[in-house]
Amino acid sequence: MAKRAKPVQNAPMQAASPPTDAAPPVSRPDAAAIEAVLLCLADGDGARAEAMLRALALRHPADGDVLNLSGIAAHLQGRPDDAVRLTEAAVAADPQSGVFHANLGAALAAAGRPAEAVAALERSLQLRPGHAPTRRNLGLALAQLGRGAQALPMLYHARELAPDDAETHLALARCLREAGSREAAAESARAALARSPAPALAEEARFLMADSPGSAPPRQAPGAYVRLLFDAYAPTFDRHLREQLAYRTPEALVQALAAAGALADAGADVLDLGCGTGLSGQVLKPFARSITGIDLSPRMLEKAAASGVYSRLVEAELPQCLDAEAAGSFDLAFGADVMIYLGAVEPVFSRLARVVRPGGLSALSFERLSAAADQPAAAMEVSDQLRFRHHPDAVRAGALASGWTPLLLEDATLRLERGRPVGGFVLVMRRG
Ligand SMILES: C[S@@+](CC[C@H](N)C(=O)[O-])C[C@H]1O[C@@H](n2cnc3c(N)ncnc32)[C@H](O)[C@@H]1O
Question: What is the distance between the alpha carbons of residues 420 and 344, in angstroms, rounded to a whole number?
Answer without folding.
Answer: 26
